[in-house]
Amino acid sequence: MSELNKYDAIRDWYISNFQDFESKLNGQSKTFLHDIRKDALTKLKDLHFPTIKDEEWKYTNIAPLMKENFVLPEKVEATKIDEEFIYKNSFTDFDYDRIVFINGKFSPQFSIIGELPKGAVIGSLAKAITENTEIVKKYIGKYSKVEHAFTAMNQTYSTDGLFVYLPEGKMLERPLQVFFVNGNENEKILSIPRNLVIAESGSSGKIIVNYVGVNNNSYFTNTLSEIHVDVNANLDYIKIQSEKKNAFHIDKTDIYQDKGSIFNHYSFAFGASLSRTDINSVLDNENIECHFYGIYLGKDKQHLDHHTFVDHAKPNCMSNEVYKGILDDESRGVFNGQILVRPDAQKTNAYQSNKTVLLSDKATIDTKPQLEIFANDVKCSHGATIGKLDEEAYFYIRSRGVEDKIAQSMLIHAFAADVIEAVNIEQLRDQLNHKLFETLNRIEI
Description:
Layout: H1 3-16, H2 18-23, H3 32-46, H4 83-88, E1 97-102, E2 105-106, E3 121-124, H5 125-131, H6 133-139, H7 149-157, E4 162-166, E5 176-182, E6 190-191, E7 194-199, E8 204-213, E9 220-229, E10 234-242, E11 248-257, E12 262-269, E13 274-283, E14 289-298, E15 303-312, E16 318-327, E17 332-341, E18 349-358, E19 364-373, E20 379-387, H8 391-399, H9 404-420, H10 426-440
Parallel strand pairs: 1-5, 4-7, 5-8, 6-9, 7-9, 8-10, 9-11, 10-12, 11-13, 12-14, 13-15, 14-16, 15-17, 16-18, 17-19, 18-20
Antiparallel strand pairs: 1-2, 3-4
Helix pairs in contact: 3-7, 5-6, 8-9
């Protein structure tokens, strides 16, 4: 049986679960989202899971993920966690609001949300569908495309996820920490959060999204996020992927930006056996800023894939992209960064950089920067480098009597610094630096 046929058989198994899933939805089967869900199911029947023959997936073989049939949260006993688990995985020493999802379901027990600006909402998408129906209807699914079976699968089976709504001119006083806790002690579970973030005109906020795992069973997180950044809004979205080392993580984030908006996306990938992160932003008016920062850190046989796409649709906008990879042991990284400058997007300023250090002879990286420029008055550049730690700097540091491991840590710290230092929360910067060295099992600098 060919790989595609094997994958189609697994797709059909997921489809066969829909009737039973639908029967357990209760009131949700009567909402408008269920119509979207059934439309996604129709698309799922016609789509395939990607193989390495698909150009966009040529470096990421999902065969290990397709060996398992992961079960929906509705079919298993709820995963148990406690306050200590949340605290141990929190970023601390600053004021924040907190919202927790366990296997994609909102957990009010562990969520702590203080007073918000008038009209602002932080909560679950399931609740927003009934309490903020018109807002959800206006934005959900408006720009996110269904390219393959993973996205269709999310839209078919997702019942909950993060919902953030910032009305015009409102500012989140405190950063929001979002926990997606995934895993189950009895079953190999499928976690499928669907997230919707809306920052209306002139609003601003900082959102820290943390994916963490519990228990020892393998699990699969398939997440879809839609982010709308309206006129002159300013939003920071900091994603930290710390899934268990036997987990699978597929994440797609679609961002729409309007005139004068500023959006910063930070991606820190530490966990999962196989992970794929797609980040797409459309700059659909003038004077927009879009910044993508990322660090992917691989050990053992981890596979970490990042695809970014910036669509310059209108003139006088800028995008800046800095991704750094640190790969050890037999880990493999993939970076594919695409910038599209459409004919109307004159005066575009776009920059992209991907640099990777290989700490082991067996670690590998496939990097593919892509520029497609259809305007003639633009300033665009990209660069990619792959190599070992700077040997000249290493010997210079060692010549000053610095121990070998400390010298290497100093160089890793310097390599990752411009991404970590870009994070706009000082206390978070220090803890991300600590997490980087803790993950690498190296001396922290």
